[in-house]
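Renewal narrative, Specific Aim 1. Our central claim is that a sequence can be written position by position from structural information alone. The example that follows is taken directly from our test logs and has not been curated for this report. It begins with the structure tokens describing the chain, in the order in which they were read.
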């Protein structure tokens, strides 16, 4: 199974991606997770990406495309993949099509999770993430006394870019640069729009029904 997951920040891509990749046993590639781990290990790539990520701007296409090409050298991609947070610009989408062609691979579907803007802002301001496994939680599900811990033991934290100011930027960027990518895949006939309101499992079932 070779899939791309699209959707605005906070649409639920990360949560659904984990479920899909474990169901089909395919690698989950989150460019956001890769970038955050490069930033926290202070690598060359991390140093270049940090300012963009923290201010809600897109990291330049060349860096992202280089990163994806590096990933795709790994054998595990032969069995399939699930892209989450990539491609985010038309340039990335075109370069990715080219790469897949070179590797003789084709996409099965592009899943677009659709959620309105008010709901997105609510979700992002309430979001906390596990430092260790990147699992996503809601701050409002925890009481004041409860430790902010994941089931894996990792500490839960609020992402730098999940602040009100940066959220606004990310939504602007999404509309300008990523919405056209939805059109790009619509034209290729691979797009499936999924209503992103409901429980995690309801949304997961909707996705499975389209695969
Ligand atoms: P979200 O979808 O919630 O915004 P991500 O974890 O996917 O979160 O991305 C966080 C940030 O990482 C983005 O705002 C951007 O700065 C950077 N980023 C992630 N993926 C890409 C990409 N494909 N191209 C450019 N920048 C990216
Ligand atoms: Zn965890």
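The sequence written for that structure reads:
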């Amino acid at each position: 199974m070779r899939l791309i997951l699209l959707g605005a920040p906070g649409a639920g891509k990360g949560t659904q991606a984990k479920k899909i990749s474990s169901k089909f046993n395919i690698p989950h590639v989150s460019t956001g997770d890769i970038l955050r781990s490069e930033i926290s290990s202070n690598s060359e790539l991390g140093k270049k990406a940090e300012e963009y990520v923290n201010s809600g701007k897109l990291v330049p296409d060349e860096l992202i495309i280089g990163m994806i090409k590096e990933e795709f050298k790994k054998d595990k991609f032969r069995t399939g993949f699930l892209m989450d947070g990539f491609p985010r610009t038309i340039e990335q989408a075109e370069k990715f099509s080219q790469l897949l062609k070179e590797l003789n691979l084709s996409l099965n579907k592009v899943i677009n999770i659709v959620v309105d803007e008010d709901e997105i802002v609510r979700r992002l301001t309430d979001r906390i993430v596990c430092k260790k496994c990147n699992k996503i939680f809601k701050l409002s599900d925890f009481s004041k006394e409860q430790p902010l811990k994941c089931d894996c033991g990792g500490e839960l934290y609020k992402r730098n870019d999940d602040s009100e100011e940066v959220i606004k930027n990310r939504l602007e960027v999404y509309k300008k640069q990523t919405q056209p990518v939805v059109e790009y895949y619509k034209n290729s006939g691979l797009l499936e729009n999924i209503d992103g309101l409901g429980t995690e499992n309801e949304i997961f079932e909707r996705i499975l029904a389209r695969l």
